[in-house]
Amino acid sequence: MNPILKNVLALIVGLFIGSIVNRGIIFISGNFVTPPVGVDMTTEEGLKAGMHLLEPKHFIFPFLAHAVGTFVGAYLAARIATRKLLFAMIIGIVFLSGGIWMAVILLSPIWFTLVDLIGAYLPVAYFAGKIAE
């Protein structure tokens, strides 16, 4: 396969599957940690309205969704791409950009924002890229 097509495919697969994993974990999170009454943890609007009601336990699954989604996307991209670590990190940067955007929109607690942005994206993408190598 042409290396350029292979790398484009790596990005598409990594972003698509990583996003599905992220969304899937967020979707099932309510089965493990019950959200406060009236808070919809699966939509941006629901999170904005109920952010002040959330406790630290409510941030476990969002962190896991970001970390696992990034890992899966970065790993798959790295397995497909010609330059494995580079493409894993590109996926990590794209997911980090989304994390920054959501942190700005939702105004989550600073402790979560720091842990999430520092720990759930680039280190996980690097780890995925190294495993794929």
Task: List strands and helices in order, with pairings.
Layout: H1 3-28, H2 44-50, H3 60-80, H4 84-106, H5 110-119, H6 122-132
Helix pairs in contact: 1-3, 1-4, 3-4, 3-6, 4-6
What are the main properties of this structure?
mainly alpha, 6 helices, 0% strand
Molecular structure report:
- The chain is 74% helix and 0% strand.
- It has helices at 3-28, 44-50, 60-80, 84-106, 110-119, 122-132.
- Helix 3 packs antiparallel against helix 4 and helix 3 (60-80) packs parallel to helix 6 (122-132).
- The model has no long low-confidence stretch (mean pLDDT 94).
Number of helices: 6
The overall number of domains is: 1
**Main sheet: strands, sense, barrel:** none
The portion of residues assigned to helices is: over 70%
Number of strands: 0
Encode the helix/strand succession as letters: HHHHHH
Unreliable spans: none
Give the overall average pLDDT: 94
Q: In terms of structural class, how would the helical and strand content be classed?
A: mainly alpha
Give the N-terminus to C-terminus distance in angstroms: 19 Å
How much strand content do the residues show?
under 5%
Cα-atom Rg, whole angstroms?
16 Å
Cα shape: elongated
